[in-house]
């Protein structure tokens, strides 16, 4: 379960250096899909405020960047106090290496036409909250769009807890809300700094079965690593659709 590891010991700086200092091909592919998915869902922003949530944001800012044109408010939720400190530092003016992720998003006009500096927009929209994914059960239908990248399978070795994490994420979204979620395939666990963290071994069938309990309007993409990009992990499964 989510208490299997000492999340306060999670090292977001080591995690970012290993995974996001430079943009990898698969992350660029995921960004391309999610930017177009959100862009098609919101062809015109209109006057209705949109609220977004990135569940288990950790050291990864690109899911929040993908929601930036559409949201007046974006909640970055994470259980780790170390991750929360990192996110709060980044919220004021995020590091320059995130610009390469923003450039991929800007291939869609909705992002390139943003009428303010993305750092200023990020600072105004983002709210960082320390909290557990399972606590989202108290906030059913609260958010208008959402992302969850490498979370439900990366906090536990339990399949039941994985399914419950997916459920809590989807139930937190309003009916019809667009979402994007990514999962490490067949992970045996991972390190962030000096500490090892648990993982649940899931593949595309398990991901689809977990999502299908709450929506039929989704697609999955199985993305295989061309090299041992992330040790102990077989690839990524990306899912996107509407609640």
From TrEMBL:
BP-aspect Gene Ontology terms: methylation
Keyword Transmembrane helix set for record: no
Gene Ontology molecular function: any one: methyltransferase activity
Entry superkingdom: Bacteria
InterPro entries the UniProt entry points to: NNMT_TEMT_trans, SAM-dependent_MTases_sf
Keyword Transferase: yes
Keywords: Methyltransferase, S-adenosyl-L-methionine, Transferase
Protein name as it appears in the record: SCO2525 family SAM-dependent methyltransferase
Lineage of the organism: Bacteria, Bacillati, Actinomycetota, Actinomycetes, Kitasatosporales
């Amino acid at each position: 379960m989510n208490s299997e590891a000492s999340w306060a010991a999670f090292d977001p700086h080591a995690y970012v250096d290993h995974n996001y200092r430079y943009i990898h091909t698969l992350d660029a592919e995921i960004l391309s899909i999610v930017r177009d998915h959100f862009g098609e869902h919101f062809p015109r922003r209109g006057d209705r405020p949109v609220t977004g949530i990135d569940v288990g944001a950790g050291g990864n800012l690109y899911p929040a960047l993908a929601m930036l044109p559409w949201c007046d408010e974006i909640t970055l939720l994470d259980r780790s106090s170390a991750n929360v400190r990192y996110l709060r530092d980044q919220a004021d003016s995020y590091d320059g290496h995130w610009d390469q992720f923003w450039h991929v998003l800007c291939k869609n006009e909705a992002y390139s036409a943003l009428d303010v500096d993305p750092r200023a927009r990020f600072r105004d929209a983002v709210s960082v909250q320390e909290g557990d994914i399972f606590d989202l059960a108290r906030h059913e239908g609260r958010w208008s769009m959402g992302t969850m990248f490498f979370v439900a399978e990366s906090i536990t070795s339990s399949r039941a807890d994985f399914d419950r994490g997916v459920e809590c994420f989807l139930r937190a979204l309003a009916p019809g809300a667009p979402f994007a979620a990514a999962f490490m395939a067949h992970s045996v666990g991972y390190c962030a700094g000096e500490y090892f963290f648990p993982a649940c071994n899931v593949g595309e069938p398990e991901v689809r079965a977990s999502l299908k309990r709450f929506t039929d309007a989704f697609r999955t993409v199985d993305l295989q690593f061309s090299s041992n990009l992330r040790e102990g992990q077989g690839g990524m499964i990306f899912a996107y659709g509407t609640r």
